[in-house]
Amino acid sequence: MARFLHIVAIGPLAGGAAGTEDRCVTQTAPTPRSPRPQESPHAEESPARTGPRIHPAWWVAAVAFLVLIGAAGFRAAPGVLIDPLHEEFGWSRGGISFAVSLNLLLYGMTAPFATALMERYGIRRVVCGALVLISAGSGLTVFMNSQWQLVLCWGVLVGLGTGSMALAFAGTIAGRWFLARRGLVTGVLTAGGAAGNLVFLPLVALLADGPGWRAAALAVSACALAVVPLVVWVLRDRPEDLGLLPYGAGEDYVSPPPPPAGAARRTLGALRNASGSGVFWLLAGTFAICGATTNGLIGTHFVPGAHDHGMSEPVAASLLAAMGVFDLIGTVFSGWLTDRKDPRRLLAVYYGLRGLSLFFLPTLLGDGLHPPMLFFVVFYGLDWVATVPPTIGLCRRHFGEDGGIVFGWVLASHQIGAALVAFLAGAIRDATGSYDLAWTSAGVLCVGATVMVMAIRRPAPPRPGPPAGPGPLRAAPSGAGG
């Protein structure tokens, strides 16, 4: 990971360094000759002004990536445990799915408030508290003997914890620490969710199939606690805390003012302002379909659905994790495309292809691996959360500095859709004995999302903002938002 960050960071590093050394070097053109000032009469100042070879923004992004890996893995673990819990306690799949749907709902509804809390109280405090909640919720499940306890632990505690480290957290890190390559960083951080499935799902499935689901729950609890020291050590709220500019910031960059007091008030105010725009409702509606067809349906029910066709749970979980590998590639590539192409057209392609693949899924499931099933895994993986960078980009372009909080509310709609479909798909399985109706209905929803996203108007030029702020300085951050 460090090597990757170093390679990605090389490009604008000289420009960023020049911005930090501007007070002692009067010309910006000879930045490639940066060693020369060390031989000048002011050589005693050069050690203090020489920045690190890799901008700290990349290390912050690396830790955020690790946190998002954990958040996704912790949230996805209950999907692998549906059948073991059904077999041990006799609970219906619909009842177990209700706990998962509550987890997904709180994951989404917590996100906008968590974003505002991070701005008010700091990223480290919020993330550390979230990790402790996840550890407690997962660890306490080993003592449960009633279904309401599953709802409390996995539904409430783990849902609140993972929601505090949701994709809005990725938008906050990218927005504060990066001006250049912001879309790419958003894509990489978003892909942390896919990597979380890759790391955790096979492990949880193997533990559930071997020592039992309690061992899997304890493993999740321990992993959540293990990340806390790294968060305390590396994460900082803003580059200004280290005396640095955001990655890619130029000489004219001015740090944004501190957020106003009242995190909840600002969060609700951003929702009130955004809800008057048709763009917000189109984004919320399409992202709800995104959540319904990923976390709600495939993420929760693919493993038990494949198991219905004779596939073993570890194999099915490995296929779901393999989607994470291609999701990593697809989301990073989508972030790169978002910096260069119309986000609306990207979303239309993503939703259309996703719907097409879901129509074919009922004919692909079987008791073993075969090329069409592997093709579905690759195809769906590439498309999984490729929708996130364009959606974040549209939020930034249409809602300015409130874009991060607005995306938190859009993400809430994503999880509302996921929660609804997670429950309904389990109920369909209980009622019909098959998931086929759930797969095809989700394909129809994706067709609708394709139509909706093309109804979003082309982003207008950045609004001038309040009179108190200088116009050019306010336009720079939103213009770099990809």
Automatic annotation (TrEMBL):
CDD domains: MFS_YcxA_like (cd17355). Its main location: membrane. It is found in: Cell membrane. It is a multi-pass membrane protein. Residues 460-470 have a biased composition (Pro residues). The keyword rRNA-binding does not apply. This is MFS transporter. It comes from Streptomyces hoynatensis.
